[in-house]
Amino acid sequence: MKYAEKHPELRMLYIAFNRSVREEADEKFPANVLCKTSHQLAWPSFGRNYANRLTHSLRLFDIANATQSDDWVYVKAIQDTLKTLCAVWIVRLCYVTVPQY
After folding, report:
1. Who contacts 7 (Cβ-Cβ below 8 Å, separation ≥6)?
2. Closest Cα partner for 21 from 93, 83, 99, 100?
């Protein structure tokens, strides 16, 4: 934050993990810092192109259709693997740090 205050001529981007963090950052950062969530950054360029495919959950039936499998143990293993990978990805994003200035 101090770096942004010392350099008001620079435009900066702060990427927050969720909306509440972004809203808090909006209140604290100076006007030269744009605060967005990763979703807000991705949606205009990518998300809306796939809006008809987006889902809030990985349903077994949808995975079975996509893999053309009727082996429900296999389909459940795919679902568990994808959920784990998504969780790991989110945790790794939380630990990304920016050097202090």
Report:
1. 32
2. 93
Amino acid at 55: T
What percent of the chain lies above the pLDDT cut of 70? 77
* Segment (H or E) for 34: strand 33-37
> Cα(82)–Cα(41) distance, rounded to whole angstroms?
23
The dihedral through the CA atoms of 63, 66, 67, 68 has a sign that is: positive
49-65 residue pLDDT tens: 777 666 667 789 988 99
pLDDT, tens digit, 9 for 90 and up, residues 60-95? 998 899 899 999 999 999 888 888 777 666 555 555
The torsion angle over the Cα atoms of residues 60, 61, 67 and 73, rounded to 10 degrees, is: 50
Residue spans of the domains in the chain: they are: 1-51, 55-101
